[in-house]
Amino acid sequence: MPVREAAPAKVNLFLHVLGRRAEDGYHRLDSLAVFAAAADTLEAAPAAPDGAGLRLALDGPEAAALAGEDPERNLALRAARALAREAGIAAPAAALRLTKALPVASGIGGGSADAAAALRALDRLWGLGWARTPRLAAVAARLGADVPACLAARPVRMGGIGEVLAPAPPLPARLGLVLANPRLPLATPAVFAARTGAFSAPAVLPETGWREAAALARDLAALRNDLEPAAIALCPPVAEVLAALRALPGCLLARMSGSGATCFALMPDAAAAAAAVARLPSAWWRWGGGLYAAAG
Ligand SMILES: C[C@@](CO)(OP(=O)(O)O)[C@H](O)COP(=O)(O)OP(=O)(O)OC[C@H]1O[C@@H](n2ccc(N)nc2=O)[C@H](O)[C@@H]1O
Ligand SMILES: Nc1ncnc2c1ncn2[C@@H]1O[C@H](COP(=O)(O)OP(=O)(O)O)[C@@H](O)[C@H]1O
Fold it and tell me: Which reaction does it catalyse (predicted)?
């Protein structure tokens, strides 16, 4: 039986850049990440059609952006190979099918989420039983700074370079997100390199969390995405996306996610978010709904 895992979009509700590591130039971050119900899907079947090896097939509305790329560079396949190595599987076999619904290179961690979904799916398919163990988290961390958070796929406070995770304060039961991307890719290294100005302090968040979306938005308004000015300098349409999101009825806060160009509007609930999407330009990638609810 094939196993299927969702690869939900990561949304950085705030992202403070605290400093830069001397040893490798990676930036130290403080972020509150949540996962939207917008997701790629990763399916893993017992063996490839020809009976051997690891294979990856791509489909879905956003797959075209990856068509020219070597499948071996795809994060889902790299995750599969890394897991097989760690588990000592000499001749790993699985047929992976990745259905891309999230735009590529867009600040919502699509590739990282795919890698995490591949780890979860193959952990089940190969019967490793490593889910929620440090062993699987270590494989994730080697694949990318964002992959451990995507492996958790639940609200997390991200520290370190993104790989140090702590539970998020309790979030409102009713919360909506609108996501919008101008269909312009932004490369994460370029955005970090274009960042200027002083480093930020870590955020102070209430341990008791927030009961209402409006209260969360009020606290987030005092925080920032420190990569937003650099992303706008590299990709000016990001400012238009932010303005359009701020003008949506019910918008409580609009901000860029990750290194962009995807921006989000925080909404009172999923229905308000879904209803608002049609007001955005149809040339953009756009989505509205609630948070992803991980199984278990
Ligand atoms: C900025 C964030 C925020 O959540 O999101 P995205 O825009 O990718 O969604 C992440 O930190 C991205 O994580 P991820 O995309 O996994 O990064 P990696 O592949 O490890 O690194 C790509 C490049 O980004 C830069 N980088 C990444 C993470 C970090 N903490 N400091 C950095 O300076 C480095 O130049 C690195 O070479
Ligand atoms: N499964 C994948 N989905 C998206 N991008 C991938 C994938 N595998 C490798 N990549 C590469 O990773 C780069 C960053 O993509 P992505 O993870 O979507 O960015 P971001 O984390 O900024 O949203 C892409 O430009 C692409 O070349």
Answer: 4-CDP-2-C-methyl-D-erythritol + ATP = 4-CDP-2-C-methyl-D-erythritol 2-phosphate + ADP + H(+)
